[in-house]
């Protein structure tokens, strides 16, 4: 089973890119982030025509997440993290797909830091960690996946010394990520590429893509039931080089059958 995550940075504006990639890569399950579209404007017709079912949580202009499935049915479980009822940002979606609980997330950026946006990021991370602990108690296959907006280690960022005060790399955020993983999750891409620099995001400025000056901020965290089923994974880096593309590249893993 091929499972992918892709921050599309605007699902309607970059729909041709998304459809081209879906046809090329043929993932079985896809999590999308940054839809930047209200619920009624999600391009479900085009997605269906490409061979995918979908559930999505949209929001006008900002945020938004979706889960796509090529074959298996999608059973939506929930579309908000517990713990902050007044939070109306569309950043989280859970669904059962093919026997796996897929948790699609778009963690807040948090800049500028320090400040209210950074505080919100840390609170959101704490809520995610609490939810993740609950999910592990269910003793079922679970994947937390999406744009975490954190580079866990210096290996995950080009020239880390330039990012020390950024909300994606501050010690509090990296500590939050490692605390989450320490519950018993497997960082799939880092497990497959133990000592390699592998990036999932390249800024539009300063020829970042051409210079391979990237960040690894899109992650898969696997529950213990899936750790031994991880076969392979990678980044479809060339998609970042397409015209009018997202600043993220699609990231994927392959999970074996039981």
Structure in words:
This protein is of the alpha+beta class and 258 residues long. The protein has one domain (2-255): Deoxyribonuclease I, Chain A. It is 24% helix and 24% strand. It has 7 helices and 12 strands. The protein has helices at 15-25, 44-49, 116-137, 171-181, 188-192, 208-211, 224-227; strands at residues 2-7, 29-33, 53-57, 65-69, 74-78, 92-97, 100-106, 142-147, 186-187, 218-222, 230-235, 251-255. The strands form 2 sheets. Strands 3-4-2-1-12-11 form a 6-stranded mixed sheet. Strands 5-6-7-8-10-9 form a 6-stranded mixed sheet. A hairpin with a 7-residue loop joins strand 3 and strand 4 (65-69). The termini are close together. It comes from Flavobacterium noncentrifugens. The active site is at 106, 147 (proton donor/acceptor), 248 (proton acceptor).
Brief characterization of the structure:
Helices cover 24% and strands 24% of the residues. The protein has seven helices and twelve strands.
Percent in strands: 15-25%
State the helicity in percent bands: 10-25%
Q: Output the radius of gyration.
A: 17 Å
Question: Spans with pLDDT under 50 lasting ≥5 residues?
Answer: none
CATH architecture: 4-Layer Sandwich
Site (Transition state stabilizer): 149
Active site: 106, 147 (proton donor/acceptor), 248 (proton acceptor)
Family: Belongs to the DNA repair enzymes AP/ExoA family.
Keywords: Hydrolase, Magnesium, Manganese, Metal-binding
């Amino acid at each position: 089973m091929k499972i992918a995550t892709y921050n599309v940075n605007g699902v309607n504006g970059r729909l041709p890119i998304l459809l081209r990639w879906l046809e090329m890569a043929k993932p079985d399950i896809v999590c999308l982030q940054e839809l930047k579209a209200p619920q009624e404007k999600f391009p479900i017709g085009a997605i269906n025509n490409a061979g995918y079912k979908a559930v999505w949580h949209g929001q006008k202009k900002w945020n938004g997440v979706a889960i796509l499935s090529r074959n298996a049915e999608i059973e939506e479980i929930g579309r908000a993290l517990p713990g902050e009822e007044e939070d109306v940002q569309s950043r989280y979606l859970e669904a059962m797909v093919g026997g796996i609980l897929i948790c699609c997330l778009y963690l807040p950026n948090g800049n500028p830091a320090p400040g209210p946006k950074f505080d919100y990021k840390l609170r959101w991370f704490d809520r995610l960690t609490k939810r993740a602990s609950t999910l592990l108690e269910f003793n079922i296959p679970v994947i937390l996946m999406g744009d975490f907006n954190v580079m866990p280690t210096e290996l995950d960022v080009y020239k880390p010394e330039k990012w020390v005060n950024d909300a994606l790399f501050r010690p509090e955020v990296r500590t939050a990520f490692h605390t989450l993983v320490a519950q018993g999750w497997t960082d799939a891409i880092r497990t497959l590429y133990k000592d390699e620099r592998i990036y999932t995001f390249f800024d539009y400025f300063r020829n970042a893509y051409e210079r391979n000056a990237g960040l690894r901020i899109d992650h898969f965290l696997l529950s213990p039931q899936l750790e031994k089923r991880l076969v392979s994974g990678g980044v479809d880096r060339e998609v970042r080089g397409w015209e009018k593309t997202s600043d993220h590249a699609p990231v994927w893993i392959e999970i074996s059958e039981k």
